[in-house]
Structure formats: C-alpha cells, structure tokens
Specification:
The chain has two domains: 100 residues, Methionine synthase domain (Methyltransferase, Methionine Synthase (B12-binding Domains), Chain A, domain 1); 132 residues, Cobalamin-binding domain (Rossmann fold, 3-Layer(aba) Sandwich), CATH 3.40.50.280. The N and C termini lie far apart (58 Å). With 232 residues, the chain is an alpha/beta fold. It is built from ten helices and five strands; from the N terminus they run αααααβαβαβαβαβα. The chain has a five-stranded parallel sheet, with helices on both faces. Helix 8 links the parallel strand 3 and strand 4. 37% of the residues are buried. The structure holds CO-5-methoxybenzimidazolylcobamide. The site of CO-5-methoxybenzimidazolylcobamide has 28 residues, from helix 6, strand 3, strand 4 and helix 10.
Length: 232
C-alpha cells in the first residue's frame, strides 16, 4: 500500500486538505476530489471558495505545467476530468448562492472540421477557471454560431480549427458578424494547431490562443478589461 493510500482526507486540516486537492487534481484522481469537495462543504466552506481556492487553484498549477511542457494532453484530460467531478457537485450550489461568474464563452469547431480534443480541453480548462461554457461541438456552419450568440449572449466567441482547409472558415464567421453589426459585441478568440498570431490578426480575431492555458489567461484578461470599462 502506498503512502498516498494511507491519507485519510477527512483527518487533514483545511490547509492540508486544499494542498492535497492540488496534488490529487494534478494526478487526475476524480473520486478523491469529489470526496474532498464534500468534506470542505460539510465544514462550512462556501461553494465559490471551494471552486476558486481549491479547484481553480489546483487547475492553475496544471495549466502552467501544461503550458511549460511538463504535463501532456492525457494527464491534463485526467486532471480536467477530476475537476469536472468536483464541479458537478458545486454547480447546483453555485447557481443557488449566485457566485460571481467570470464570464461566458460559446465555443465550437468550425464547419468541415471534426477535431475536438483541443476544443474540449480548452472548454474544460475555462470551466475550471470559472467560465460558463456553451459547447457547440464540431462541424459548425456560421448559422450555428449566430444562433448560439443570440440565445446564449456570451462574452466570448471561441472557434477551433485543426485543418489548413477549415481555418479560413473562421473569417467567414467573423465577416458575417461584421456584416450584421455584431462584431464588437463579443471577444473573438481562435485556436488550433495550424493557426498563428498573424492569422488571428489577419482574420480580425481579438486573439489567437496557442493552447488551453493561454486561452484561459487571454479570456481572463479580456474579462478584466471589460469589467474595468464598465466600472469606469
Ligand atoms: Co487529424 N489531422 N485529420 N484527426 N489529426 C491533423 C490535424 C493533421 C495535422 C495530421 C497530420 O497530417 N500531420 C492533419 C491536418 C493537416 C493540415 O491541415 N495541414 C490532419 C488530417 C489531414 C486529418 C484528416 C483530413 C485525415 C483524413 O481523413 N485523411 C481528417 C479530417 C477530418 C475532418 O476534420 N474533416 C482527420 C481526422 C482525425 C481523427 C478523427 C482521426 C482525429 C480527431 C479526433 C478528435 O478530435 N476527436 C485526428 C487527430 C487526433 C489528429 C492529430 C493527430 C491530433 C490533434 C489533437 O487532438 N491534438 C493532428 C496532428 C497534430 O495536431 N499534431 C491531426 C491534441 C490537441 C490537444 O491539440 O487540437 O492543437 P490541439 O488543441 C490545442 C491548441 O491548438 C489550442 O488549445 C488546445 C489545447 O492546448 N486550441 C484552441 C485548439 N482549439 C482552440 C480553440 C480556442 C483556443 C485554443 O478557442 C478559444
């Protein structure tokens, strides 16, 4: 039996438990995360504090190590899965307590493209950072994006493309938003392996995001700016 197996989560004090949650998220241990979330809630922690101090705190470490090439896609997917376990417990409670939402993003892979691993990872990491995510899935024509923007009223539109043949479709979506006078209503973030900064600029996106960690940081950045503008 490893030392890890001997740890009884309920016997740790709050600080130790949060530290243990960071480790368990990093290791993708979903059941342990679910148990720890339950313990913190029983101890009277507000759901929002569990989300931000324990789960988001842990995912920030995962995100940074992913960006720096210390963690790879399979590990990040496992960590994100563990995070989702904790989030599923907190989601209804957060809705009840009205915890502040960081922002909302509609995201989808563009028409003609069925790659979704990267998009899913971005969605999960963004959820981990407190964003509400509406995932449109794969192979989205411009109509799907427009409908979702209308009904969901997000702050951010995210688009993903993995093929050199599908990435130009992002411009079709952005140009349609311009034509309809809606472009400035949303922050448009784009990503996918064949893209780069120059392409992002050329099609009129607000930013190109190299990976999920950059997507989280960029989205947070734009939300801060938006809030500062509103309160100024
Ligand atoms: Co395809 N495929 N594939 N493929 N596939 C690539 C993209 C390719 C580069 C492989 C190669 O030839 N070397 C190549 C494209 C070549 C090109 O366009 N120049 C290719 C091809 C050709 C094809 C097919 C055409 C093959 C065929 O049928 N002949 C076909 C296309 C089908 C279609 O879409 N119409 C096809 C199919 C498939 C599978 C179905 C088998 C599978 C997809 C499974 C799935 O997604 N559910 C697949 C896979 C797995 C790949 C590779 C191997 C891996 C992609 C991936 O998941 N990477 C890929 C090779 C490669 O990229 N090295 C390849 C891991 C993922 C975490 O990274 O998606 O880059 P990524 O996402 C990152 C960032 O890019 C960024 O953050 C993510 C996380 O860090 N990001 C965003 C992504 N989206 C974002 C959105 C944002 C922000 C950031 O919005 C805010």
């Amino acid at each position: 039996m490893s030392q890890e197996d001997d740890i009884i989560l309920s016997e740790l004090d709050d600080e130790e438990l949060v530290q243990q949650m960071f480790d368990d998220l990093y290791d993708g241990l979903r059941e342990e995360i679910e148990e720890a979330v339950g313990i913190l809630l029983e101890r009277g922690w507000a759901p929002y504090d569990v989300l931000t101090k324990a789960l988001v705190g842990g995912m920030t470490i995962v995100g940074a190590d992913f960006r720096d090439g210390i963690l790879f896609v399979p590990e990040v997917l496992l960590a994100a899965n563990a995070m989702k376990g904790g989030m599923a417990i907190l989601k209804p409670l957060l809705a009840e307590t009205g915890a502040p939402r960081v922002g909302k993003m509609v995201i989808g892979t563009v028409k003609g493209d069925i790659h979704d691993i990267g998009k899913n990872l971005v969605g999960m990491m963004m959820e981990g950072a407190g964003f509400e995510i509406v995932d449109l899935g794969i192979n989205n024509p411009v109509e799907n994006y427009l409908e979702a923007l209308e009904t969901e009223e997000p702050d951010i539109l995210g688009m993903s493309a993995l093929l050199t043949t599908t990435m130009p479709y992002m411009k079709v979506v952005i140009d349609t938003l311009i034509e309809q006078g809606k472009r400035d209503d949303y922050v448009v973030l784009v990503g996918g392996a064949p893209l780069n900064e120059e392409f992002g600029r050329a099609i009129g996106a607000d930013a190109y995001c190299r990976d999920a960690a950059v997507a989280v940081e960029t989205a947070k950045d734009f939300m801060h700016r938006k809030h500062n503008r509103v309160s100024a």
